[in-house]
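Hello forum,

I keep getting stuck at the same step: I have a sequence, I want structure tokens, and every attempt I make locally crashes halfway through. Rather than fight my setup again tonight, could one of you with a working pipeline run this one for me? It's a single chain of 320 residues.
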Amino acid sequence: MTNLIFPKFLNRKKIFALICVSFFLFSCKQIDSTIEKSVEITVLGTVQDGGIPHLGCIKSCCKNYFEKGFSKKRVVSLGVSDHKKKKNYLIEATPDISIQLNDFLSNNSKKLDGIFITHAHIGHYSGLINLGREVFNTSKIPLYLMPKMTNFISSNGPWDQLVKLKNVELKSLSHEKEEKLTENLTIVPFKVPHRDEYSETVGFKIVGPNKSALFIPDIDKWNKWKISIKKLISKVDYAFLDGTFYDSKEINNRDISEIPHPFIIESLELFKDLKESDRNKIYFIHLNHTNPLLNSKSQEYQHVVSNGYNVAFEGLELKL
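Reply #2:
Ran it on my machine without issues. Output:
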């Protein structure tokens, strides 16, 4: 029987050596697999706060969805996982949180270890209401907030009830102070200029063991920020940037000064001198329902990707 498995010309020493080599190669493969997938970002939503279809919109971008069925595109959010430590974090609690968490956690350990919020505009925090006793009734979910955002949640109903009933546990963030979540995952908040009616606005730098990413879904015009976005892009591997409007034609019925996001065409002009490798890092996100980049067949979409940029999409996974 033994000879059927190991030919005669293989003595015991050679057999033992082969077994050791095989075990080593298998172990390396397993270790490499763990390293490759240790920390990962998952895009859970890409659309501006009001989603699509958008209440009150009678344009073709929303009309078809209202008439033929709702879109699968969700409001802007990221999931961040440290697979090695089985830790999962949500960035932004959107109106689509139920679907987003179901999709995100079903592919992980089915446990949420914390939520990070950029600011107090409805698409970024209103999903928190689902953590209350009327819905999920969570227990002490860590909620990472900047000081003004903490005060807003703590001092206003119905959000303060989440604190009182211990559905959430408030965790303080500070400008440019690292929040080390695991040995492989750190998140750093940094303030950006935006309409701060109720709270400050931050972006996040997400740092994994090998790569890092920027997440800036909302900001006023780039020239209003004292920081050079181009320099920041050069220092990370991925950059999810505010792409709310493609150009001013989308909002010809609104006062542009009230919603001073950087237009895509302005960002393209600003970034045109970047190295191709840096342009490849950019993923436009937080797209308004009127934004032609939501349609991958549009001329505007083709123009953006042909120049080396990316448009974020639901389900995109990037390893850090």
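The CA atoms of residues 45 and 76 lie 4 Å apart. If your local run keeps crashing, start a new thread with the error log.
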